[in-house]
Specification:
This protein is α+β, with helices and mostly antiparallel strands and 233 residues long. The chain folds into 2 domains: 4-150, Jelly Rolls, CATH 2.60.120.10; 156-225, Winged helix-like DNA-binding domain superfamily/Winged helix DNA-binding domain (Arc Repressor Mutant, subunit A). It is 40% helix and 22% strand. It has 9 helices and 11 strands. The protein has helices at residues 7-10, 21-31, 87-90, 113-117, 124-152, 157-172, 183-189, 194-206, 222-225, and strands at residues 34-38, 43-45, 53-59, 62-67, 73-79, 84-85, 99-102, 106-112, 176-178, 210-213, 216-219. A 4-stranded antiparallel β-sheet has the order 1-8-3-6. Strand 4 and strand 5 form a beta hairpin. Helix 7 crosses helix 8 (194-206). The longest helix is centred in the middle third of the chain and has 29 residues, at 124-152.
Length: 233
């Protein structure tokens, strides 16, 4: 299959950043990846199962949801084109703690972990660079998990929301940003009730801290958003 139309996107991913078209030709020929398309709501990876493939999202988007004992689930992450999933699992034998679902019509390129780890003696220099990129993706996810833990340890809902908003601003490099998360998904991510979230967001807007926009936010004072104060849930 000809993957060259996807090269510009692949070169922006954390895993394949820095590789030229010619180098991608060599890598993909050696890896023999597979391409799969999913409809909205289809399961890409089920909690309790392992995988030996790294998934790169070419089109569409996915959500990772943590199933809870009461039958509900919490949205852990949402990714769009260029996102990577199962990179932490594929290198080992652990089972997935989350369900990965297609949030819309989605196309994924799967790279076999065995080929990434042992691509052959003809690709030693490319292998080293690829493994360095892989380690970087895992490291970033570790620190993202640490940020999530810090967020969930906040005693007030306002501070929890504030930390999330400031983190999104940093990621966007601006005080205005959009988010693919719905209010219900954001409430689940912040581990709070949706109505409590909406009330607190309205109060924060009234206090001049933020402006609510359709699909996003504008932050006016990052420092105040992270102060240890605010309304309880």
């Amino acid at each position: 299959m000809d993957y060259t139309p996807y090269y510009p996107l692949l070169q922006k991913t954390d895993l394949l950043r820095g590789f030229t078209d010619e180098e991608l030709d060599v890598l993909l020929q050696a890896f023999a990846p597979r391409l799969r398309r999913y409809g909205k709501g289809e399961m890409l990876l089920m909690a309790g199962f392992s995988t030996r493939e790294v998934g790169l999202i070419l089109q569409g988007g996915i959500t990772a949801e943590k199933p809870l004992p009461d039958g509900t689930s919490v949205v852990i992450a949402r990714q769009g084109p260029g996102g990577i999933f199962a990179d932490v699992l594929a290198g080992g034998q652990n089972q997935s703690p989350v369900n990965v679902l297609a949030a819309e019509a989605t196309t994924v390129l799967y790279l076999p972990a065995a080929a990434v780890l042992q691509p052959g003696t003809a690709l030693p220099s490319l292998q080293v660079r690829l493994l360095q990129n892989w380690l970087s993706t895992v490291t970033r996810k570790y620190f993202a998990l640490d940020d999530r833990l810090e967020l969930l340890c906040c005693k007030s809902l306002r501070q929890r929301i504030g930390l999330w908003l400031v983190g999104q601003c940093r990621a966007a490099g601006a005080d205005s940003f959009t988010t693919p998360l719905t209010r219900a998904e954001l409430a689940a991510y912040l581990n709070c009730d949706r109505s409590a979230l909406c009330r607190e967001l309205s109060r924060m807007q009234q206090d001049g801290l933020i402006t609510l926009r359709r699909g996003g936010f504008t932050v006016h004072n990052r420092r105040k958003l992270t102060e240890k104060s605010g309304s309880p849930e």
